[in-house]
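User: Reviewer 2 asked us to show a designed sequence for the structure in our supplementary figure. I'm pasting the structure tokens here. Could you produce the per-position amino acids so we can include them in the response letter?
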């Protein structure tokens, strides 16, 4: 009996200890970079959320709803937070009506998210567009709308373009931080937009963002000392990238290294599907769950007796056809589709689920797979009626996924060129422009496109062209590396470009890519220049003067959008098998590489199309070699006379 009592006491202590441990565990469920991808990753006509094991599509917000419910139930009594790392909008047809219905924010709320941060794409419709999105979502959800966390956002008191967005911050729909108490644990959450994300946000002004490091230090101090939270969580739209040695670096990692006191980072922006968190300083997990609702991340943490959180377990759950979709969320998405068709597509003669074309293989944005890039630039040239067209690989936003049947709906094709907003009409999509330049200016443009790609070392800047093909010699000096330019196409043939000919060549592009034409002199520090002109050779002062007006007889400018130009071009392709759908070519001329890397020390390749840079450097090098030869010869003579 004496022995039994201590054993019973010990057992009670163990049970109490386990209960305390369980009480101090919690779960974080997280996503990032939804990018309005509500219907899954693949041909939309093959997405079947109501059934399982009968399609190959990945993702889908209805499936996410089901998985979130299941993982909440699996957590049992442990507190659960559901968080998002930003860029929940922009990328599919659904974002085209986000200002009117706030669809993505409504879904985040209905799925039970506790908070999200702002990504760079939330500003693609300018600050007023984001404000309209929040207003629409608030009208639908009221005070249940999830909070948006942005700790380093700065509004401009001297400009009114961000006043409507600031109004949401003033009433707490956008907050610097929030505190959530759940299961006896106080969680402090804040949100940051990183420097790179800001740099790739052309529509963000007049909103600005304070230094993330300084802001993070302030937020940690407030949450730790004023709010006395147990756990500090950063919702970060900054990004991480894997290095050659397999390690992970990036703004999110570097910030945690420099700012003590952050316990967890729910990241975004770089679309990294991390199978396990990056443990910074051996303790702070930095997480990302890929992008476009392909995954759901699940982090399980435990708070020890000293109050320090530790990782217990992590899972990156794939979202695929093994998970059935939630019927109510599927119905909500169908409602959104109807709004898109009615407001966005019907005026242009299209509908959301309309089959438009067929492809016999998946087309990607990879460098060695030129078909999709050629298709997009051919569409730009066709839509603008130009001699040439340019774009960058980063403006092509999605692969063309063949799926089981190869049928591409309007909604699938839109994803290839979804970005932008009008200069005149504020409608979704970059407007198309047309400018005229000389042959020498064509070369100058190619030089800038080429060097931007090489200096940035980024696939986003990889040049895509139509109406010409060109070669470059990396052994030549920067801004003078283009060694061959031929005008034409694979069907009609190519002719060498004569730089001395005073003929003007028309160029078709989006307003985003085309705007760089006015900046060539600044970008090259005056080494190269381009003056965009009209058909008569008169200088165009700004981008708005080059925007194509589809109906000059109507008041204002009727913009022709990139996405519509792509749909119109694909619709015009031949139906080779008589099934009523255009057939996208994937062989022959469609596969030509229009930019070739040809390193060579042959004089013809070193000096063909050479300008003052290449010749000047060559003269300097030659003079240097002659000087060295003269000095060596003099040294030899001096030794002989001794």
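Assistant: Here is a per-position design you can include in the supplement:
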């Amino acid at each position: 009996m004496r022995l039994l009592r201590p054993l019973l006491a010990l057992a009670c202590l163990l049970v109490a200890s386990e209960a305390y441990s369980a009480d101090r565990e919690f779960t974080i469920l997280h996503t990032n970079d939804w990018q309005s991808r509500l219907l899954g990753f693949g041909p939309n006509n093959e997405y079947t959320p109501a059934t399982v094991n009968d399609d190959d599509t990945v993702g889908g917000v209805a499936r996410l709803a089901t998985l979130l419910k299941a993982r909440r139930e699996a957590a049992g009594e442990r507190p659960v937070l559901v968080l998002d790392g930003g860029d929940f909008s922009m990328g599919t047809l659904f974002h085209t009506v986000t200002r009117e219905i706030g669809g993505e924010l409504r879904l985040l709320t209905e799925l039970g998210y506790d908070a999200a941060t702002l990504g760079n794409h939330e500003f693609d419709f300018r600050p007023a567009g984001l404000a309209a999105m929040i207003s629409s979502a608030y009208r639908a959800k009221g005070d249940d709308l999830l909070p948006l966390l942005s700790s380093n956002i700065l509004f401009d008191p001297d400009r009114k373009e961000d006043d409507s967005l600031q109004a949401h911050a003033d009433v707490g729909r956008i907050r610097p931080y929030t505190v959530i108490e759940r299961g006896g644990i106080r969680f402090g959450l804040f949100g940051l937009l990183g420097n790179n994300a800001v740099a790739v946000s052309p529509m963000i002004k007049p909103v600005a963002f304070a230094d993330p490091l300084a802001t993070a230090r302030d937020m940690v101090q407030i949450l730790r000392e004023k709010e006395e939270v147990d756990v500090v969580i950063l919702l970060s739209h900054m990004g991480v990238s894997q290095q050659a040695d397999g390690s992970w670096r990036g703004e999110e990692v570097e910030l945690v290294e420099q700012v003590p006191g952050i316990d967890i980072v729910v990241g975004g922006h770089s679309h990294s599907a991390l199978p396990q968190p990056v443990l910074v300083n051996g303790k702070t997990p930095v997480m990302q769950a890929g992008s476009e609702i392909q995954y759901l991340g699940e982090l399980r943490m435990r708070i020890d007796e000293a109050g320090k959180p530790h990782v217990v377990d992590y899972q990156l759950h794939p979202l695929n056809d093994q998970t059935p979709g939630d019927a109510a969320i599927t119905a909500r998405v169908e409602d959104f589709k109807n709004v898109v068709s009615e407001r966005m597509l019907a005026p242009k003669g299209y509908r959301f689920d309309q089959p438009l074309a067929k492809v016999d293989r998946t087309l990607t944005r990879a460098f060695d797979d030129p078909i999709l890039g050629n298709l997009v630039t051919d569409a730009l040239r066709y839509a603008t009626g130009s001699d040439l067209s340019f774009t960058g690989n980063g403006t092509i936003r999605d692969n063309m996924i063949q799926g089981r049947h190869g049928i591409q709906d309007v909604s699938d094709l839109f994803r290839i060129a979804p970005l932008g907003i009008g200069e005149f009409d504020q409608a979704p999509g970059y407007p198309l422009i047309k400018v005229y330049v000389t042959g020498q200016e064509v070369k100058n443009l190619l030089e800038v496109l080429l060097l931007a790609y090489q200096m940035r070392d980024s696939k986003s800047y990889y040049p895509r062209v139509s109406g010409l093909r060109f070669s470059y010699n990396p052994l030549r000096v920067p801004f003078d590396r283009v060694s061959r330019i031929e005008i034409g196409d694979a069907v009609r043939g190519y002719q060498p470009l004569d730089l001395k000919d005073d003929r003007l060549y028309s160029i078709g592009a989006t307003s985003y890519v085309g705007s760089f034409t006015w900046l060539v002199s600044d970008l090259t520090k005056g080494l190269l220049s381009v003056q965009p002109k009209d058909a008569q050779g008169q200088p165009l002062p700004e981008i708005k003067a080059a925007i194509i007006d589809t109906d000059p007889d109507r008041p204002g400018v009727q913009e022709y959008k990139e996405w519509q130009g792509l749909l119109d071009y694909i619709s015009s392709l031949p139906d080779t098998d008589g099934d009523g759908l255009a057939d996208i070519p994937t062989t022959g001329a469609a596969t030509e590489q229009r930019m070739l890397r040809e390193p060579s020390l042959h004089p013809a390749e070193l000096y063909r199309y050479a300008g003052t840079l290449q010749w000047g450097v060559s003269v300097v090098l030659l003079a240097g070699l002659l000087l060295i030869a003269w000095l060596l010869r003099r040294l030899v003579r001096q030794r002989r006379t001794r």
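For the response letter, you might also mention the following. The two ends are 112 Å apart (CA to CA). The longest strand covers residues 309-318.
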